[in-house]
Amino acid sequence: MQSTAACGGFFMSFSNEVRKEISLGINDKDKRFACLYGMLLYSKNLNKESIILNTENEITATIFPELVYKVFGDKVKVKIQKSNSHYTCIIDNEEQVQLIYNKYFINPDDRSINQDIIVNNSFGIFAAGIFLSCGSVNDPSKEYHLEFAAPCELLAQELKQLLLDIGVNAKIFIRKNMYIVYIKGSESIEDTLTFMGAQQCTIELMNVKIFKDVRNKANRIANCDSANIDKVINAALKQIEDIKIIESKIGLENLSDELREIAELRLENTDMSLQEIGNSLKIPISRSGVNHRFKKLAKIADEIRGEMKNEKQ
User: Fold this and answer.
1) Are the C-beta atoms of residues 131 and 19 closer than 8 Å to each other?
2) Which of 1, 22, 90, 267 is an S-S bond match for 128, by CB 3.0 to 4.6 Å?
3) pTM (two decimals)
């Protein structure tokens, strides 16, 4: 299963998928303010004379000057330099640099998170800004690993605590004078991506995990028809994707009792056949009855996808 998406004629890495989804969610004043704060605070090069954001990512290089303009208007100018695949975003006017530091209460010689200047519902998007500035996540089909490269120990410890507040246990190690805050384990990465506003990427990661789990179980069964295995796996993936979209947008509690029960059973039992699910219901039903209910869930999910597509247009 491919965990990258085609985009503009090339394949987008999973990290870029996360960055792209995050950037689409930065759509109001508070979110722009909080996201830019995360990007600035965790930039490697801050001093009294200049702010320099180095990145090899085009999305980060594009969104940084856009956010600066949205927050500060024409008062601050960002210079962009590109060399091969490397981008450098520079603010080197001392008055403009000081304006930014005053706005965000940043001391470049003693950086720490000032929680008072972020509204409560913007902590996730603040973390998203940190990810845009210094984060990356591996292709989940290969390895479950997400990390942030913090420029100093205090910021690393504060980010670790911020993640712990949402139930994610991160660890820290030093690499090339940077403090790497890293997360292992698919569930912790899923929680972090969701916290930062990358729900669709969370669903994609879940799909990869489900595919790997089901495939591993299927490979242990002797004399199985591989075509049938793929059919079962893909059907289960589609069902869980539909259920996750419904859960994230309207909540499973708002489904009818019969649809909620079958949705919860599928989430808890990714490798169950339709017949096994039917037998596990409070009131058992046939395989075709189970299939009929999944078709109802698919229809609800497709309606939600249509509404989401219209909102983006």
Assistant:
1) yes
2) 22
3) 0.69
